[in-house]
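Per your request, structure below.
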């Protein structure tokens, strides 16, 4: 049986008007607190709207994350992240059961934060934002828009969090001290989240405690499991910094297009002599992440352009 929402309000859900037809699998997405749970409770008849109306069958079932996966026949089924803790075999079996339920006319609404799961199961996606139905449609249209929205929000949030230096190892003879290590976005503002593709920079600030004839400042980016992604230093970049005197402070910025895949990374920085004697070495001192509007495998985001031809 179809489920009809007519200006249904149950905070934070606000004036929802939409219909889920017979035999449809509807994925409900959105940031936490956007009204997904309230929508499912209304659909299952567990709650009544504070305003507006909801038409739902009396034979309805609501399942939460910790509930048993009861997929016995029912007119309407609401799954609140119920598939999230399940193993791949259980999910595969559930997909087969959903097909059976669809053929019998069951209307299924489910919430998930997993794009791959949504793409595999959903006939339609409803995107809730701040309690309102922001968009609805095919997953090929809605999910990329939602992922871009999340990447933008995450990138903006990165500028509001102060970077914290927490090196796993620190060594050197003390002639210099790294007093700041930052990742900068295209705006030039410090951020712990970079957008894949934007022009970014790593900024190292070094205070010298003793004279150094020819200091070299370098960086290394690694994945969170220690794979070396990219490293360079001022000597490789043909930049002469010395001689410097005691009390002098240098700020060096390494600018580059952030062609990295979305995941977490660490940053190592060092000040040393050309022969490799360290003044200050901070191993994996700063953690940062890269966000993007879609999943990309690997480390280097080469942003391929794909063409096709029929032979």
């Amino acid at each position: 049986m179809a489920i009809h929402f007519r200006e249904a309000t149950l905070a934070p859900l606000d004036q929802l008007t939409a219909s889920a037809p017979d035999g449809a699998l509807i994925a409900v997405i959105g940031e936490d607190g956007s009204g997904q749970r309230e929508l499912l409770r209304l659909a299952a008849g567990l709650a009544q709207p504070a305003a507006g109306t909801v038409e739902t069958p009396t034979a309805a079932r609501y399942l939460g994350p910790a509930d048993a996966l009861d997929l016995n026949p029912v007119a309407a089924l609401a799954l609140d992240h119920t598939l999230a803790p399940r193993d791949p075999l259980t999910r595969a079996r559930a997909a087969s059961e959903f097909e059976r339920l669809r053929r019998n006319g069951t209307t299924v609404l489910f919430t998930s934060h997993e794009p791959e799961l949504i793409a595999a199961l959903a006939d339609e996606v409803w995107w809730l934002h701040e309690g309102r139905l922001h968009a609805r449609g095919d997953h090929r249209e809605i999910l990329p828009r939602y992922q871009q929205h999340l990447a933008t929000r995450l990138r903006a949030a990165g500028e509001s969090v102060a970077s914290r230096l927490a090196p796993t190892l620190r060594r050197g003879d003390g002639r210099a001290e790294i007093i700041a290590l930052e990742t900068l976005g295209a705006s030039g503002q410090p951020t712990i989240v970079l957008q894949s593709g934007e022009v970014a920079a790593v900024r190292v600030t070094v205070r010298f405690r003793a004279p150094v004839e020819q200091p070299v400042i370098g960086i290394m980016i690694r994945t969170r499991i220690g794979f070396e992604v990219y490293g360079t230093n001022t000597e490789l970049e043909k930049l002469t910094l010395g001689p410097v005197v005691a009390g002098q402070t240098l700020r060096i910025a390494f600018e580059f297009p952030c062609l990295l895949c979305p995941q977490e990374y660490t940053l190592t920085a060092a000040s040393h002599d050309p022969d490799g004697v360290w003044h200050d070495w901070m191993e994996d001192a700063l953690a940062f992440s890269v966000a993007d509007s879609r999943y990309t495998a690997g480390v280097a985001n080469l942003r391929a352009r794909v063409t096709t031809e029929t032979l």
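The radius of gyration is 26 Å.

Regards,
D.
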